[in-house]
Amino acid sequence: MHAIEETQLEPGDGALLLANLTKVRTDIDRAVRHAGREPQSVALLCASKTQSAERIEQVILAGHRLFGENRVQEAKAKWPDLQARYPDVELHLIGPLQTNKVRDAIRLFDVIETLDRENLAEALAQESAKLGRSPKLYVEVNTGAEPQKAGILAQDADAFIAKCRGLGLDIVGLMCVPPVDQQASPHFALLSQIARRNGLTRLSMGMSADFALAIQLGSTEVRVGTAIFGHRPA
Ligand SMILES: *Cc1c(COP(=O)(O)O)cnc(C)c1O
Predict the structure, then answer these.
(1) What's the first-to-final CA gap in the chain, in angstroms?
(2) Distance from Cα 68 to the centre of ligand 1, integer Å
(3) pLDDT for 8
(4) Residue owning the nearest CA to atom 6 of ligand 1
(5) Which of 4, 8, 43, 57 has its C-alpha lying 20 to 30 A from 50's C-alpha?
(6) Per-residue pLDDT for the chain (234 aa), expressed as one digit of tens each?
(7) What residue segments make up the domains of the chain, in order of their start?
(8) Which residue is closest in CA terms to ligand 1's atom 7?
């Protein structure tokens, strides 16, 4: 396993993280009100990739319970101990999943947001049956059809969702990461449209830079890292 460059806890960090978390929650509440949506209709997922277990624990101690990690190996090193001590934490996988890591992912994560291809759907169905544990799943949609990016193409989404349901998978929502160099709103609107016509109510969309816009367009879960933890080391 290669070393992970983690951001370590420094003196005063607890107070800083609490202040950042409070500000993000306030901004989310404002966006929810502005959009005329129900209070509490948008969850804040704290994206904790590259953060040390000590820094993550400060956010847990501030009362936060919903987290997302990008890599199975990194999560495996940081989370089992935190999960044992804080059993009400909910952990989501928000990064790409290789089929050879499916078993570990099912053990570690409550929700996997990056289901994006048939062989992964089949592996998830098989391993869930073996382990007797079925995580809730989001289908990731590559709304910008970017060749380097994970996610099912928008035009293939309906058939893929049907296929996953046929395998008995518990599909609860959709997730997207819009292209960095484009207006995010058409991508959020597209994801929302695909969810609606497939009877899915959960939409994981919006990050530090654009969560207010995502909330305006129906997001039920914003994934925020930088605005809580500060900039990650390059
Ligand atoms: C890192 C990450 C986030 C959080 O991004 P920030 O810009 O730091 O808020 C959200 N979603 C995914 C998939 C990520 O990898």
Answers:
(1) 20
(2) 9
(3) 78
(4) 225
(5) 43
(6) 444 566 777 878 889 999 999 999 999 999 999 999 999 999 999 999 999 999 999 999 999 999 999 999 999 999 999 999 999 999 999 999 999 999 999 999 999 999 999 999 999 999 999 999 999 999 999 999 999 999 999 999 999 999 999 999 999 999 999 999 999 999 999 999 999 999 999 999 999 999 999 999 999 999 999 999 998 876
(7) 13-229
(8) 208
The pair of structure tokens assigned to 189 is 């609107």
Kindly give the distance from the C-alpha atom of residue 45 to the centroid of ligand 1, in angstroms, as a whole number: 10
State in Å: Cα 215 to ligand 1 middle: 16
Mutate-to-test residue for ligand 1 from 207, 211, 224, highest number of ligand atoms within 8 A of CB: 207
Nearest Cα to 100, choosing from 74, 134, 124, 77?
124
According to CATH, the topology of domain 13-229 is TIM Barrel (3.20.20)
Q: Which atom of ligand 1 is closest in space to residue 227's alpha carbon?
A: 9
How is residue 34 written in tokens?
A: 């502005």
* Ligand 1 mean position, distance from CA 67 (Å): 11
Can you give the pLDDT at residue 160?
Answer: 98
As for ligand 1, residues whose beta carbon falls within 6 Å of it are 47, 49, 70, 94-95, 177, 207-209, 223-227
What separation in Å is there between the alpha carbon of 228 and the centre of ligand 1?
11
Residue 53 to residues 6, 58, 76, 113, 129, Cα–Cα distance (Å):
9, 9, 11, 22, 31
